[in-house]
């Protein structure tokens, strides 16, 4: 069984073809600048030379056609014909309250996804475009939707409500949803495997620290709290997003700088976080480098970031009434030795003791805490695509 995994953004499309008999990656790639001049596909079949296909792609359908041609290409393709694709798994950002798990996409599901677009106007419309385009090109192939929000639908109401007038929840579903669910679920499962214990018996905090970042409390295999909320703006400070702040700042800031709500919203999403504080970059590699060279604001941005992650770990340990493991994943979590060390510093009282030697590692699935650390600190490279392929297989396989 071969599953094509699709992750469609507004002007890009990432894909992977996975053989689900053995979970082997057959091919992967990205189509970029869809709908913009200069569009291209970078394609790589495992074990073959990379290919770059430069062709105009006016929309997602055009891009998917080129991706499929690349997949069956005589020289750099991975399969003989499109009929080898058994199913397509689509990453969908927002499933609202309707979806607490992955679903086979049908007419009703698409109608609900259209409704959810209001909750994620930047993400859901391109996800849907990808679904419609695949349906046209692969009409008899089943499609599955895997939602970033679904894993967090197990949060208790006390975790997901905002302390706003209750009718806002009833009328408009203003509540916390959480994101990165596919990643949090995958790394928690991997961590349990590494520990040789059932996920259902563990209290885990998973830290997905990439450009976007969120922390999740997973008790007995279920998400019970997570740092992102109604949108992916809440929670940790991120590369360019501000994370938690006093909502009263918004009106004050608008008045002082004569800004519109859209301008403030844009600044909170694109000019804040680590970029905003450091003034250097949203990329942690640049900020770490600047801090090492003595840039105080860069160091402040890092200290701020580490402190916020630490705060969530403590809060979630308290919420779950204990802690067995802390898991780090995504760009920074997998690669930054200093970030893991600083976040775990002074948490010995909770039972967290990082081993500096074991922690001197990047991108490998491994335990990085000391033997006597009662809480295990674990590094797990995330693999959202494989998780999407597994969910797809489970539904249509
Ligand atoms: P996303 O998928 O959310 O775009 P990633 O999970 O790829 O993001 O994470 C990207 C972030 O990871 C970048 O901001 C970068 O700063 C950080 N990162 C990647 N490699 C390293 C590294 N070696 N050291 C520190 N940070 C890193």
From TrEMBL:
The Swiss-Prot or TrEMBL record lists the needed cofactor(s) as: Mg(2+); Mn(2+)
Q: Tell me the keywords, alphabetical order.
A: ATP-binding, Cytoplasm, Kinase, Magnesium, Metal-binding, Nucleotide-binding, Transferase
Q: How is the cofactor bound?
A: Mg(2+). Can also accept Mn(2+).
Location in the cell reads: Cytoplasm
CDD domains per the record? ASKHA_NBD_AcK_PK
Q: Where is this site: Transition state stabilizer?
A: 180, 241
Pfam family, any one: Acetate_kinase
Q: Which residues bind substrate?
A: 91
Q: Which pathway is it part of?
A: Metabolic intermediate biosynthesis; acetyl-CoA biosynthesis; acetyl-CoA from acetate: step 1/2
Supply the name of the protein: Acetate kinase
């Amino acid at each position: 069984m071969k599953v094509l995994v699709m992750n469609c953004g507004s002007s890009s499309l990432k894909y992977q073809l996975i053989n689900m008999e053995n979970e082997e990656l057959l091919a992967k790639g990205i189509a970029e600048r869809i709908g913009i001049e200069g569009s291209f596909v970078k394609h790589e079949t495992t074990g073959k030379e990379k290919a770059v296909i430069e062709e105009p792609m006016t929309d997602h359908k055009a891009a998917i056609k080129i991706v499929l041609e690349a997949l069956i290409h005589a020289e750099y393709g991975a399969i003989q014909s499109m009929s080898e694709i058994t199913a397509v798994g689509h990453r969908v950002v927002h499933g609202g309250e309707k979806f607490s798990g992955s679903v086979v996409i049908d007419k009703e599901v698409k109608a609900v996804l259209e409704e959810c677009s209001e909750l994620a106007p930047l993400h859901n419309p391109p996800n849907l475009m990808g679904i419609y385009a695949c349906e046209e090109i692969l009409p008899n192939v089943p499609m599955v939707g895997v939602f970033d929000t679904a894993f967090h639908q197990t949060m208790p109401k006390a975790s997901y409500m905002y302390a706003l007038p209750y009718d806002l929840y009833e009328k408009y579903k203003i509540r916390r949803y959480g994101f990165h669910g596919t990643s949090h679920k995958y790394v928690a499962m991997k961590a349990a495997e590494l520990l040789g214990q059932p996920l259902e018996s563990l209290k885990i905090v998973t830290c997905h620290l990439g450009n976007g970042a969120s922390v999740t409390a997973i008790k007995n295999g279920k998400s019970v709290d997570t740092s992102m909320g109604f949108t992916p703006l809440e929670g940790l400070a991120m590369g360019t997003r501000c994370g938690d702040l006093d909502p009263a700042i918004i009106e004050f800031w608008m008045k002082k700088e004569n800004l519109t709500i859209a301008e403030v919203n844009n600044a909170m999403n694109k000019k804040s976080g680590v970029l905003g504080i450091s003034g250097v970059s949203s990329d942690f590699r640049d900020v770490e480098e600047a801090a090492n060279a003595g840039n105080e604001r860069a160091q402040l941005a890092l200290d701020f970031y580490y402190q916020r992650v630490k705060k969530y770990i403590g809060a979630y340990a308290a919420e779950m009434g204990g802690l067995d493991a802390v898991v780090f994943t995504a760009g920074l979590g997998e690669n930054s030795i200093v970030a893991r060390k600083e976040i775990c510093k002074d948490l010995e009282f909770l039972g967290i003791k990082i081993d500096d030697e074991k922690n001197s590692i990047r991108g490998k699935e491994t335990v990085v805490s000391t033997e006597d650390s009662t809480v295990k600190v674990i590094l797990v490279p995330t693999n959202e695509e494989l998780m999407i392929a597994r969910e797809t297989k489970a539904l249509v396989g």
